[in-house]
From TrEMBL:
Residues 3-169 form the N-acetyltransferase domain. It holds the Pfam family Acetyltransf_1. PROSITE patterns: GNAT. This is GNAT family N-acetyltransferase. CDD domains: NAT_SF (cd04301).
Length: 169
């Protein structure tokens, strides 16, 4: 199956929000407190799209996954309890979510591979990301994809595990 990784548009907002609502519910059912505080929400997604940071993995007219990708745009990462592998430019991504109908097909890993391509196309070889301590799905994916645990960062008053992957060109 050929998926298209592309920038999200305003027309995608309803599908993206549906994906995130279900992901928020799954996190809750998993007993996690991640995404249980009103974030993310449609305003955040609208802002991602307006800034050109929202990206989707599309299967024809259906959106299979969503994430936000930014370059050097994560102030919380300056204050890490630990140490990043690299200094300098980095790509950061947030709000990774896969649509319910597409779960279990390895699409989160496929999306992360597209993010690696995005970084390299922008001549950046550092990917940084954080996740909740109890987000086992994401922790497993980061481990499988060669990310290195670098320490803790804090978001909205809560500690998060921070990871980096250095890409070779």
């Amino acid at each position: 199956m050929a998926y298209l990784f592309r920038q999200a548009t305003a027309d995608d907002l309803a599908q993206i929000w549906e994906i995130l609502k279900k992901a928020i519910q799954r996190r809750k059912e998993d007993g996690s407190n991640q995404w249980q505080d009103g974030y993310p929400n449609p305003t955040v997604i609208q802002s991602d799209i307006a800034k050109g940071a929202g990206y989707v993995l599309a299967d024809g007219d259906h959106i299979a996954g969503y994430c936000a990708i930014m370059i050097n745009d994560e102030p919380a990462y300056a204050d890490i309890d630990g140490k990043w592998l690299t200094e300098g430019d980095f790509v950061v991504y947030h709000r990774v979510a896969i649509a319910e109908d597409y779960l279990g097909k390895g699409l989160a890993q496929k999306m992360l591979a597209h993010i690696e391509d995005f970084a390299l196309s922008n001549k950046i070889n550092s990917l940084k990301v954080d996740t909740n301590f109890d987000n086992n799905g994401m922790l497993n994916i980061l481990n499988k994809m060669g990310y290195v645990y670098c320490g803790e960062v804090s978001f909205r008053g809560a500690p998060r595990k921070a990871f980096e992957k250095v890409l070779t060109t």
